[in-house]
Amino acid sequence: MSDEFNMSMRKFLKQVGVTSQQAIEEAMRNAGDTAGKTFQARVVLTVDGLDLTHEVTGKIEGQS
Questions:
Q1: SS3 47
Q2: With the C-alpha atoms ordered 9, 12, 15, 16, is the resulting torsion angle positive or negative?
Q3: Alpha-carbon distance 6 to 55, whole Å?
Q4: DSSP H or E run through 54
Q5: Closest C-alpha to 16, from 42, 45, 39
Q6: How far does CA 56 lie from the centroid of its chain?
Q7: What is the rounded CA–CA span in Å between residue 50 and residue 9?
Q8: Whole-structure pTM value
Q9: Which InterPro entries does the entry link to (predicted)?
Q10: 51-64 pLDDT, tens per residue?
Q11: Using an 8 Å Cβ cutoff, are 40 and 24 in contact?
């Protein structure tokens, strides 16, 4: 793959990671005390023009 492709993909994935973390942190603050709770998380990535649907699932532990 080309350097231009790799750079654009890394830039996109960095934006996804940073903005997703910010959104999760804000939601946790708004939820109040989440200590002892586990939240199921799911991200679905689609790319227009490509036959791509990618799903990632995981768990996020709450905090007090």
A1: strand
A2: negative
A3: 21
A4: strand 52-61
A5: 45
A6: 9
A7: 14
A8: 0.86
A9: DUF6494 (IPR045471)
A10: 999 999 999 999 87
A11: no
Q: Over pLDDT 70: what percentage of the chain?
A: 100
Residue 59, CB half-sphere, CA atoms under 13 Å: how many? 5
Distant-in-sequence, close-in-space partners of 64: CB < 8 Å, separation ≥ 6: 33, 34, 35
Residue found under tokens 């080309």: 2
What is the identity of the amino acid at 15?
Q
Nearby residues of 59 by Cβ (< 8 Å), 6 or more positions away: 38, 39, 40, 41
Question: 3-state DSSP: the chain helix, strand, coil percent, rounded to 5?
Answer: 45, 30, 25
